[in-house]
Amino acid sequence: MSNENKTIHEFDLQLICDFFSNMERQGPGSPEVTVKALSFIDNLTDKSLIADIGCGTGGQTMVLAQHAPGQITGLDLFPDFIRILNHNAGRLGLQDRVRGIVGSMDDLPFGQEELDLIWSEGAIYNIGFERGLNEWRKFLKTGGYIAVSESSWFTDERPAEIHDFWVDAYPEIDTIPNQVAKIHKAGYLPVATFVLPENCWTEHYFAKKTAAQEVFLNKHAGNKAAEEFSSLQFHEEVLYRKYKEFYGYTFFIAKKR
Ligand code: SAH
Prior knowledge:
The protein is an alpha/beta fold. The protein has one domain (3-256): 3-Layer(aba) Sandwich (Rossmann fold). The chain is built from 9 helices and 8 strands. The chain has helices at 13-21, 31-38, 59-67, 79-91, 129-136, 160-169, 176-185, 199-219, 224-243; strands at residues 49-53, 71-76, 98-102, 115-121, 140-153, 174-175, 188-195, 247-256. Strands 1, 2, 3, 4, 5, 6, 7 and 8 form an 8-stranded mixed beta sheet that branches. Helix 1 (13-21) crosses helix 8 (199-219), helix 2 packs across helix 3 (59-67) and helix 8 packs antiparallel against helix 9 (224-243). Mean pLDDT is 95; it is low at 1-5.
């Protein structure tokens, strides 16, 4: 298989983790977008329980904590990410309200109807959009919210190169109307849907990736897998710039019915 066709799933997890540890966020997004998504949510108090699933190193977790009341649990599969999150929570004086734990999104440690809000930026694809919506719903109180960002097709048709890339990486990518229909079907009221602006990819993701890449390649000089993984990151950016009118990320905010 050529380097260009390799997906992230074929690389050593420790290597992936090491690369992304150098970044504040591990997917497209921005503080402005996190705050905008939060503006559609009206049920939070100091007593609220919030889960940030697939939180990574917690870039958006800190923004949430600075703009919403309540206790936030960030959960991620990678212990290194959680270590960074807890360190940053301490550094920002948020340690009493923000706690990072290692866990898996397909086996969440929350009680039934315990949560007021489930947050998940650029991570639900790991379990699958529909499965995540369905399985996570039981942890939410009735009237509780879910806010997730997910990759979407913007058109019904698209060039084969980008179609094949996504079908290989994440076949569940879908058009926004179909995704909203899935939210409705899973037992939520779709409250808001908006497309992430381009700067979430360019400024907040690719530019930061380029900087992280330098640190990463210095550390792993001569390591073939590391070099391959790093060039794959560049390929994703080339594809985005070429095909951004056909796909992007969408934020979906919905309320449990
Ligand atoms: N929400 C962060 C990170 C998005 S990247 C941000 O927007 O910056 C996706 C995250 O999902 C990664 O941190 C990855 O470690 C995590 N992840 C992957 N599979 C997971 C699983 N099964 N359970 C929990 N987290 C998972």
